[in-house]
Every structure is written in C-alpha cells, then in structure tokens.
C-alpha cells in the first residue's frame, strides 16, 4: 500500500468517524429509548450498526480495496473525537431546526389541505344533504295532502257501497261476521303501524332539516 493510499485511507476513515458520530446523534434524536419497546429497540440497534458497517466497508473498499490496518481504527476514533469537540453542538442545532421546519411545513400543508379541499367538500356535501332533505320533506307533504284529498273523495264516492256492505254483513251468520271482523281488525292494525312509521320518518326528516 502506497503512502498516498494510506493518506487517503486515513482521511476517509476520519471522515467516516465524524459521520458515525453524527449518525449516532441523529439516531438518538429520532429513537426514544424510554418510549420504545426493548425488542424493537434491539432491532433498531442491529439495523443501525449493520448499515454503518456496510458503509464503512464500502468506503474502505473504494479507498484501499478493503484492507484493514490499525491506523484505520485510530482514524475513526480521531473523526469521532473531532466531531464531538467541534461540530456536535452545531450539527444538533441544525438537525433540530430542520426537524422543526419539516414538522411546521407538514402541519401547514395539512391545515391548508383541510381548509382548501376538505372543508369546501364537506360544506358542499352538507348543503346537498340539506337540499335533498328539504325536497323530500316538501314532496312528502304535497303527496300526503293529495293522498288525503284522494282518500276523502274515494270515501265519499264509495260511501253508498260501504253502507250496502254493512247492511249485507248484518244478514250473514254470526261466524262469518266474526271472521270478517277479525280480518278488518288486522287490516286496521297494519294501517296504524304504517301511519306510525310515516310519522316517525317525517319527524326524523324535520329534525335533520332543523340542524
């Protein structure tokens, strides 16, 4: 190994030592050991050191074809010490500022999307629901009015027929009259339930409209 190669190796490993120090501070800042489960923390640590080892080996492979010497470890320690003494405080401040800036930009983008996209769509949806409710309510009222009028007209027109049927029923045997009576009672109960259901639907629509 030539002196030039050794010099480049020392320089590269010193830089990698500084990189390792910065990486450790970044890792500590992003991974909270007190709030992270032990098994997950163990996986994080293993992955971190595997990545660092691969990076060191890649740099060393490009500089001196992967040959290990004692001075390489000394150069790494020198890089870590240089980072700790000269660049650590400044790097942590810059990193925290970058994280704060990224979080602020994310919050701003989130609020912007909510105000520009989601709220207008939600407002439009509410207006559409309100319009459908109003149309449905008034359609129900108009339909109920016409149905009531039609019922009265039909009742008036069929009154002679009902009167005739009533008189004919009196001529039937008692057993038949009881059968017809039970049938009409069941029909009346069904109509009463239908009326209650319609009233419930109407009340619900009115409450929705008032909101």
UniProtKB/TrEMBL annotation:
Pfam families: Spore_YabQ (PF09578). It comes from the Bacteria. Keywords: Membrane, Transmembrane, Transmembrane helix. The chain crosses the membrane at residues 6-27, 39-58, 70-87, 116-139, 145-165. This is Spore cortex biosynthesis protein YabQ. It comes from Bacillus velezensis (strain DSM 23117 / BGSC 10A6 / LMG 26770 / FZB42).
């Amino acid at each position: 190994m030539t002196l030039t190669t050794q010099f480049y190796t020392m320089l590269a490993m010193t830089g990698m030592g500084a990189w390792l120090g910065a990486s450790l501070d970044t890792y500590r800042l992003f991974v909270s050991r007190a709030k992270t489960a032990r098994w997950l923390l163990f996986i994080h640590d293993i992955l971190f050191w595997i990545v660092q080892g691969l990076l060191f080996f890649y740099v060393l492979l490009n500089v001196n074809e992967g040959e290990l010497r004692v001075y390489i470890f000394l150069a790494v320690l020198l890089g870590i010490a240089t980072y700790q003494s000269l660049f650590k405080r400044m790097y942590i401040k810059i990193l925290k500022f970058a994280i704060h800036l990224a979080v602020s930009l994310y919050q701003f983008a989130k609020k912007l999307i909510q105000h520009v996209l989601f709220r207008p769509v939600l407002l439009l949806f509410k207006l559409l629901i309100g319009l459908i409710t109003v149309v449905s309510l008034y359609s129900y009222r108009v339909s109920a009015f016409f149905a009531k009028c039609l019922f009265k007209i039909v009742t008036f027109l069929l009154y002679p027929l009902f009167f005739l049927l009533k008189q004919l029923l009196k001529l039937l045997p008692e057993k038949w009259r009881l059968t017809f009576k039970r049938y009409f009672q069941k029909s009346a109960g069904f109509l009463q339930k239908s009326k209650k259901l319609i009233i419930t639907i109407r009340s619900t629509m009115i409450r929705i409209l008032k909101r």
